[in-house]
Amino acid sequence: MGAVTEALVRRWLDQAQHVVALTGAGVSAESGVPTFRDAQTGLWARFSPEELATESAFRAHPQRVWDWYVARREALSGVRPNEGHLALARYARRHPGKLTLVTQNVDGLHQRAGQPFTLALHGDIQSERWLDEPRGCCAGGPPMPGRPPRCAVCGNLRRPAVVWFGETLPADILSAAQEASAACDLMLVVGTSGAVYPAAGLVHTARRAGGRVVIVNPQATELDDIADGLLRGGSAQILGRLLDGDPATGRENC
Ligand code: NAD
């Protein structure tokens, strides 16, 4: 199916018992956070994310990868959640238990918008952990400062607590997301190219279980073919109109 009207999707939202919103980098684009595609035209254009966001890249070039994450963290300190993040958080608070928010983003903007509960499939860019299984020495004191910081005794490195390409997603979070996807009547797929699995597989799960799928994105995605409806445009405006009700009628979804 192709384009649908926002009014029809609002009706689907009203009828749904359980809604999943699956978000990707695009939901944060209007906050000024580059998507991966944007990143390739920017500061780090010489390296693709696949060359930076992998364990082997980190082991081969720890400083380069660490610095990329430091730059992304610093960029995040100056941005704020946009109307899309805020509308999702308001909707979840108005309808307790109805919306499950699943995000591929590591930027923490849903949480900062006040989303009551977020399944963050790919971790959190502001957190770190040890690269290799920590031994007693690693826990014994603060890591030696550096780029990246390391254990003063064994040299184990600190790494960002995000899921890199080729790594397994946290099993408990993925299985909660799969359960919610299989149980939803409606899935909003917002700002994701649909190219990264297993996250994109959640859309197939919802579809197979009989849930409706609506994609919110200004561009075509790899999931358009299985969607019940496409809403073309930026998510900040579209989510505000969809989830807060129709400003023309003043009607609230309830
Ligand atoms: P992606 O970069 O592959 O795709 C971004 C999508 O967002 C595209 O389909 C694009 O058309 C769409 N988009 C751009 N502007 C938009 C807007 N205003 N409103 C709605 N959609 C818009 O990102 P992805 O699909 O999330 O997958 C890539 C991986 O990138 C994920 O694993 C994610 O963890 C990681 N990532 C995260 C962040 C973040 O945390 N903000 C940023 C970059 C990449």
SSE topology:
Layout: H1 6-15, E1 19-23, H2 36-39, H3 49-52, H4 55-60, H5 62-77, H6 83-94, E2 99-103, H7 109-112, E3 118-120, E4 123-130, H8 136-139, E5 158-162, H9 171-183, E6 186-190, H10 201-208, E7 212-216, E8 229-231, H11 235-243
Parallel strand pairs: 1-2, 1-6, 2-3, 6-7, 7-8
Antiparallel strand pairs: 4-5
The chain binds nicotinamide-adenine-dinucleotide.
Residues 24-26, 28-30, 33, 35-37, 104-107, 122, 191-193, 195-196, 217-219, 221, 234-235 line the site of nicotinamide-adenine-dinucleotide (NAD).
Structure notes:
The protein has 254 residues and is of the alpha/beta class. Helices cover 35% and strands 15% of the residues. The protein is built from eleven helices and eight strands. The chain has helices at residues 6-15, 36-39, 49-52, 55-60, 62-77, 83-94, 109-112, 136-139, 171-183, 201-208, 235-243, and strands spanning 19-23, 99-103, 118-120, 123-130, 158-162, 186-190, 212-216, 229-231. Helix 1 (6-15) crosses helix 11, helix 6 packs parallel to helix 11 (235-243) and helix 9 (171-183) runs parallel beside helix 10. It is elongated, with a radius of gyration of 19 Å. The model is unreliable at 246-254 (pLDDT under 50). Residues 24-26, 28-30, 33, 35-37, 104-107, 122, 191-193, 195-196, 217-219, 221, 234-235 line the site of nicotinamide-adenine-dinucleotide.
